[in-house]
Structures are given as structure tokens and as C-alpha cells.
Amino acid sequence: VTLDFPTNKVTAIIGPSGCGKTTLLRLLAGLEEIDKGDIFIDDHLVNDVDSKDRNIAMVFQNYALYPHMDVFNNIAFGLKLRKYPKDKIKSSVQDAAKILRIENLLERKPKELSGGEKQRVAVARAFAAKPDIILCDEVTSALDVSVQAAVLNLLQQLKEDLGTTYVFVSHDLAVVRAISDRV
Question: Please, which pLDDT band fits residue 68 given cuts at 50, 70 and 90?
């Protein structure tokens, strides 16, 4: 596969179940080892770069929140792995929470949140480290239609406000049409 993801654009990847869309995202994020070939990010070879050092974030379909942690610590988790200073973690979490309008949820546990709130926390966690690329894997498929629209509008607004680049995987062609700059 040879792909180029333009800056500040949403590139959608579609295909049937089992064709490798999620595997491709996991390879880009460094969560899987590649068998052959090379992955470049901004002209830098990243084959042997740890996932935490790739400046890529991933938002999963199932939120992937830690149930024993409150929202603040779920958002902060990746920053702690990257060894951010405590004051930088606090300000980054607060900034992401403000952007995603979840400041009032920071002390709650995931079980106390709705599906839409959980997805906002997952997106906030992705944005907290200010990554170059955000990989979205079926981020709206588990949400009802009104919450889907809210999450898509939020992602679009963040792209416009922050210049974020997305790689977006979805089976829902209406969602792809609504969010993507290219497929």
C-alpha cells in the first residue's frame, strides 16, 4: 500500500470487513510490526520508532477507556507514557477537555458517562498530545445518529480550528461522505 495523507484533510479508507483497514491503522500507529516495506511520516522513516514517539493518536470504535481511571487520567495516560512534565499534562488535559466541552466530566469514571461522552473523552485523549495525525477507526459506529452527527461536527471543527490530519475508517458511506475530503 502506498498512501499519502495531506495535511489538514480527512482521508477515508473504506472496504469490506477483513480487508485490512484496521491493520493498516495499527501499522501506522506502531501497534503492529510490519513484515516488509517502510512507513514514512513527514519524510522520516518510522519503522523502528515506538508508537509513543510517532506523534500519531488513534481513536478506537470502543473508546478503549480504562474503567478504573477517571476521565482526567484517561486523557492524561498517553502524556504520562511520553513522560510529559506534570504541569504540562494538567494544562494539556484541561485544554483538550475545554475544546471538547467535557471539563465537567474530568472527575467521573467511564461507567458514569454516556456513549457520546465516552467518545468525546477518547477524542480528547487523542488531541491532548497535539498529534500530527489522528487515526479514527469506526469512531461513530457504536453511536446513535444524533450523537454521530455531534461527533462528526466536532471532528470537522477541530480539523478547521487546529489543522488536524485524519485517517478515517468507516463502513458507513454516509459518514464518509459527511467528513472526508477524499476517499
Answer: very high
Count CB-CB contacts under 10 A for residue 35.
Answer: 6
Between the CA of residue 142 and those of 47, 62, 63, 115, 163, what are the distances in Å?
32, 8, 10, 8, 26
Average pLDDT along the chain: 88
**Nearest C-alpha neighbor of 177 from the set 146, 160, 152:** 152
Measure the CA–CA gap between 124 and 127, rounded to whole angstroms.
Answer: 5
Upper half-sphere CA count for residue 70 (Cβ side, 13 Å) = 10
Q: Which 8-state DSSP code applies to residue 132? A: S
**pTM score of the predicted model:** 0.83
> What three-state secondary structure class fits 84?
coil
Instruction: Return the C-alpha cell found at 86.
Output: 506534570
182 DSSP 8-state letter:
B
The answer to whether the beta carbons of residues 10 and 166 sit under 8 Å apart is yes
